[in-house]
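Translate structure to sequence.
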């Protein structure tokens, strides 16, 4: 399990945004690394909430000077999107479209046919290893020290979603600060219950 640094200008040079690389996004990152292999220079990136789609699209733009990324492409006016596709073709540049909708039902026939030929890239569901890495990454970003055994306790209990992991780590941080106590098992348990509901398995 690793991370890649995203060189975004909105952050300090010594504090790059990082994204965890794991089973759910490794193939997507590989595909985004080589726009020369995209059919008609076009790729569509889809995936669940909080999975890093926007960050990856900005990373791809930073890596390739002739690439335009359109975040939230599924809510852009379709005529405008068709115009931007044509402009990319004329300029021999790559176009990366980021969507929250999968499938993305495009109404404009000309646009639909062109996007149908694009490379479709999807971020999937994180496995246990990636869940653990995401917990550590979110905790590190908050300066949160998780107590010993946190991953052993949390990983099997967490729902397999990027948003869910982020919400639970946020809840652990909040509860630890509110109670002025270290983030240990009682805090982990209550954070899980606050996010996922009361029916959580408990350790003896």
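Result:
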């Amino acid at each position: 399990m690793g991370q890649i640094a995203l060189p975004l200008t909105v952050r300090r040079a010594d504090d790059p945004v990082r994204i965890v690389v794991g089973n759910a996004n490794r193939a997507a990152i590989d595909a985004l690394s080589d726009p020369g292999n995209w059919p008609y220079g076009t790729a569509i990136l889809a995936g669940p909430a909080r999975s890093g789609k926007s960050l990856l699209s900005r990373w791809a733009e930073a890596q390739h000077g002739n690439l335009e990324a359109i975040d939230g492409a599924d809510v852009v006016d379709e005529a405008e999107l068709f115009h931007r596709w044509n402009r990319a073709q004329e300029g021999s540049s790559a176009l990366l479209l980021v969507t929250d909708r999968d499938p993305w039902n495009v109404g404009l026939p000309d646009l639909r046919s062109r996007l149908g030929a694009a490379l479709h890239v999807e971020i999937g569901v994180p496995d246990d290893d990636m869940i653990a890495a995401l917990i550590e990454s979110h905790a590190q970003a908050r300066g949160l020290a998780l107590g010993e055994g946190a991953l052993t306790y949390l990983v099997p209990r967490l729902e397999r979603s990027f948003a869910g992991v982020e919400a639970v780590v946020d809840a652990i941080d909040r509860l630890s600060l509110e109670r002025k106590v270290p983030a240990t098992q009682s805090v982990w348990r209550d954070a899980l219950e606050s996010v996922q509901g009361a029916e959580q398995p408990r350790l003896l």
